[in-house]
Amino acid sequence: MLQLREHQKVVVDKLLEGFKSHRSQILYAPTGCGKTEMAIAIMAEYAKQHRKVSMILDRIVLVEQTSLRLGKYNIPHGVLQAGHWRHRPQEHIQICSAQTLESRSITPDMELLIYDECHVKRKGIIDIIEKNPHLKVIGLTATPFTKGLGKIYSNVVNAPTTQELIEDRWLTPLKVFIAKEIDMTGAKKVAGEWSEADITDRGMKITGDIVAEWHKKTHEIYGKPVKTVVFCAGVDHGRDLEKNFKQSGHNFVSISYKEDSEYKRQVIEEFSKPDSEIIGIIATDILTKGFDVSDVMIGISARPFSKSLSSHVQQMGRVMRTHEGKEFATWLDHSGNYLRFRKDWDDLYEYGVKELNEGKESTRAEPTEREKKESKCPACAGLWTSKTNTCDECGFEKKINNHIVSVAGELKELDGKIKQKNINQEKFYAELLYYGRERGYKDGWSAHKFKEKVGVFPPKAWGVVQAIPPSFETANWIRSRSIAYAKGKAKWNSSTSPSNTGLLLTD
């Protein structure tokens, strides 16, 4: 029997309540939050009321996975897909292949349409939505950034944010390393993205570095080779990586659109086994949908994106699923994507999606060489998240000039206290109040956070302060404090546990 988590029940209730004012809604939920389970719960509720509902998926493997889950919960349903054995048009729940609907120009008899991965705007499915104004619609996505979604959906329902899911242990935090980057200087662009030919050619130039860095980190961090997914620049790059990994004694397998579906299914099925003979899978975008192998420990980003925040977020989500004994996942960034999209990711990580932003999928400015240098530890190449002059990963200390060190754009004194930069203190406090109240915290939380940064409590002379949404800088500071707290707690737990591994949880 299907049992939703508490946060999933809240989301389902919000969606059902939202239909009182909206015909079409988007459910934003990070990868691993359980979008499919929430969709199944809604479909089951409709079926109980003898109302018809269809869920549309754009890959055969996703159709099969969703049908299997419904079967697991003993929920009667039919599958609308060419030649499928579960063709049962009389059932109130129908799981539909998008390709089958489009090729046959079929519009299922239904009151509710659930569209999985709705950021992929298939014309045939959009036509069904637009030509049936009576139809209620829920779009499911972890990346609602595609241009034009605001014209189709009028409401966004947020699941818990990535940060909240990590704090509640529903997702695994990432330990990020900024590795040798594929040089895209002067590369050609097609529709705002670098051409596949150029990224493949340039990616192959650092194949040896990618293999060497993986070998180094998998032994440094885990003490042995562990399951890995690699997002390569193109088919030839994938095959070149496979050859080099195998020459180094590790069984990596490359899959692409050039292999048949049965072969790819067998590879992923073997990789999913706890004792798999395959240690790594290499692909371009095949793994960004319907790939749910939770014991993957390392993700390698080797396909640069100029504007596709969606692809970057989907890729990272592949390694953030929880698994027994998995304290964190490791992300080796050879593409430059993490720094390129860092501000967007930080915002999404903490706040989720409040509105359908048409500008999210636009070309990003490249980080400067100085920004790249200051964003990673010169010793271990770990992403510099420390708010002191000491790396959280390896303990490396940055040299101090004139008793002040520059860390990620923020001035720090030797004792780690923040050297004030003429901030508007009343505005800062107003932003803390807004953040705290949004999360149900008492105003005392905001006052203590104010003192943590400024050194004193907010002056009583200010009287009543009107709360305002936090700026990006304030939001980042709050997030840094949350991370520091989580790390301190993890370190304490680790030091007091008889099974202490010496590993720290990091973001």
Question: How would you describe this structure to a colleague?
Answer:
- It is a single chain.
- The C terminus is likely disordered.
- Helix 8 packs parallel to helix 10 and helix 16 packs antiparallel against helix 17.
- The protein folds into three domains: 155 residues, 3-Layer(aba) Sandwich (Rossmann fold); 202 residues, P-loop containing nucleotide triphosphate hydrolases (Rossmann fold), CATH 3.40.50.300; 65 residues, no CATH class.
- By secondary structure, the chain is of the alpha/beta class.
- 40% of the residues are buried.
Strand percentage lies at 5-15%
From the helix content, strand content and strand pairing, which structural class follows? alpha/beta
Largest sheet data: 7 strands, parallel
**Alpha-carbon distance between the termini?**
35 Å
Taken from the alpha-carbon principal axes, the silhouette is: globular
- So what's the oligomer here? single chain
Count of helical segments? 18
Q: Examine the coordinates and then state which fold CATH places here, giving the name of the CATH topology of the largest domain.
A: Rossmann fold
CATH class descriptor name of the largest domain: Alpha Beta
Query: Based on DSSP secondary structure assignment, what is the total number of beta strands?
Result: 17
How is the largest sheet built, in terms of strand order? 3-4-2-5-6-1-7
Into how many domains do the coordinates divide? 3
In the CATH hierarchy, what is the architecture of the largest domain at level 2? 3-Layer(aba) Sandwich
Low-confidence stretches: 402-421, 495-507
Q: What integer is the average pLDDT?
A: 86
Q: Nearest-angstrom radius of gyration?
A: 24 Å
CATH homologous superfamily placement of the largest domain: P-loop containing nucleotide triphosphate hydrolases
